[in-house]
Write a structure and sequence with these properties.
This protein is mainly alpha-helical. Helix content is 54%, strand content 6%. The strands form two sheets. It has a two-stranded antiparallel sheet. A two-stranded antiparallel sheet has the order 2-3.
Length: 249
């Protein structure tokens, strides 16, 4: 009918709340419980959203070889190297997708979560930046939350939230399949972010994002340790060794 319902969430993002001294674990529990509620209540058939499919996942992963690798080597990535990179990811995509598929907001982290005052439970969690939502594996947004490109999440909180999410979802998936998907999507997402942050600097003159690249590399290298990532790790060891895993000037 042309009507739009607007609500003022205030201005207290989780990021601001953390800077003010809010309890980190309590905020991450709220964010994790909100994800569980979304995944329990909102099925893929209810959303009418595009799928997070192989084509989309590979296009995002390619940002690393299209932007970051050239920035580090001073030359365009050779076509054969680019194709071998994508071939390695194609081997891993089935691992990413081997979970129930639900609503994926894609940028689920503390900058986009709001503390809505005067409410209880998950109603206290306001959600921003979901216009690019898709239907994909339930592991993705938890990776986005816990492998944050812009802040270090304490290891104890990461461990607790993974266990909390599993407990909230019950027996909807195999835990080993979840762990493999979580690592594979974490690697894919972090490769994408390194490419995006490099592109923001090189193309758009937004150099502030470069300060986060070292953190994202640490996260990516952690993900690559999972055995399911062996084809991708082998490519990185061969084509993008430690000397190239830096921050572009």
């Amino acid at each position: 009918a042309g009507f739009l319902l607007l609500e003022d969430f205030g201005d207290r993002t989780f990021t601001r709340a953390l800077k003010e001294g809010a309890d980190e674990a309590a905020l991450y529990r709220l964010a994790t419980d909100t994800l569980v509620a979304l995944h329990q209540r909102w099925g893929a058939e209810d959303a009418g959203l595009p799928p997070y499919d192989t084509e989309r996942l590979l296009a995002e992963a390619a940002l690393l070889v299209d932007w970051h690798l050239p920035a580090m080597t001073g030359r365009d990535t050779p076509p054969a190297v680019r194709e071998s990179y994508l071939a390695a990811w194609r081997e891993v995509v089935p691992v990413m997708l081997n979970l129930p598929h639900k609503l994926v907001l894609r940028d689920y982290h503390v900058d986009n979560l709001m503390v809505v005052e005067g409410r209880e439970g998950i109603a206290r969690c306001g959600l921003l930046d979901f216009q690019d939502a898709v239907i994909g594996p339930v592991s993705y947004d938890l990776v986005s939350l816990l492998e944050d490109a812009r802040r270090d999440v304490s290891p104890a909180v990461v461990t607790e939230m993974l266990a909390r999410y599993h407990a909230g979802m019950g027996s909807q998936f195999d835990s080993h399949a979840f762990d493999a998907s979580y690592a594979a999507l974490g690697a894919q997402r972090n490769a994408k972010i390194i490419g995006i942050f490099t592109r923001l600097s090189r193309r758009d003159g937004k150099h502030g994002y470069l300060q986060h690249i070292a953190r994202v590399w640490r996260l990516l290298e952690g993900d690559l340790r999972h055995p399911a990532l062996a084809p991708v790790k082998h490519w990185f060891d061969r084509e993008l060794p430690a000397a190239l895993r830096g921050t572009p000037e």
